[in-house]
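[audit] Reproducing an earlier prediction to check determinism. Same input, same settings, fresh worker. If the C-alpha cells differ from the archived copy the diff job will pick it up downstream; this log only records the rerun itself.
[audit] input (249 residues):
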Amino acid sequence: MNINDCGAGTPYESAGRGSQGIRALILHATAGTASFDHRIFMGWESGYQVSIHYYILRTGEIRQYVREANTAWHTGDSEFHGITDFKLNQATIGTELENLNTGKQSYTEPQIDSCVELWRNLRSRHNISRDWCARHKDISPGRKTDPAGFPWVDFLNEVYGSAPATGVTQPLNIGLRSYHVMVPANVRTDKSRKGQVVETMPVGSHFVSDEIVFGENVGGSVLWLHRADGKGFTHISCVEPMDSLGGDV
C-alpha cells in the first residue's frame, strides 16, 4: 500500500491522544475536490479549522496529513459508544474521501479499493472490531450527511472478510460506444473487484464498450462496461461516455 506523506504539521491537530487510545475508525466525505481539500488539510484555510489522518482521492491515491499518534480534528460535535466531542477525536482515526457528498456523485473503484486496503491495515494493527467503525453521519445524526451514497455495508463486508452481493447479470444492449478514462481504470475478468485485473487503462485513454452489465455495487453503482474487444469489464465510475458508434443508446 502506497501512502503519500503530506504531514507538514497543520495547526489544527493536537499532539498525542490524551487519555484515549485508538479505538475506532470514522469515514467522511469532503463535499469538495482535491485541490481545495488539500489546502484545508494543510491548514492553509483558516475558515476550516479541521484536519484528517488519511485522505483518499478519486484516483485512489492515499495521502496522510496527521500522524496516527496525534489527534486530528475531524469528528466535531459527535458521540460514539459514549465517547463525545474532542475525546472522540482522541479515540479515532479519520479517513476522508474526495466526493461532493451530494448522494449523486459515485465513489470510484480505485478509491474504494484503496479505502478497503487502508482500513484492513488499520483494523488489524489497532485491533478494531466492526462495531467500532462508523460514518460521520452515524456519530453526528442530523448535523452531518457524509459520506452520502457510500456503499457502507458492502465496504465493511470487504474490510472484515465477508463478500458483498454481486447482483443480477442481465446485460443492457447499448450498441457500440466510446468512453474516456477519467481515473485509472482496471479491466477485470468479471464484473466484480474480485475479478483478475488484466489491464489498467491510464487517465486520458479511450476504449469501446458493447454492453452495460450489472455487477458488484462499487461506490453506489452496479453498472459495469464490457469491452468490445472482449478483454473484460470496467466499472462505470472510472469513465465518461464520448459518443455513440451505433445501436440504440
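[audit] rerun output stored. Observation attached for the diff report: The two ends are 39 Å apart (CA to CA).
[audit] end
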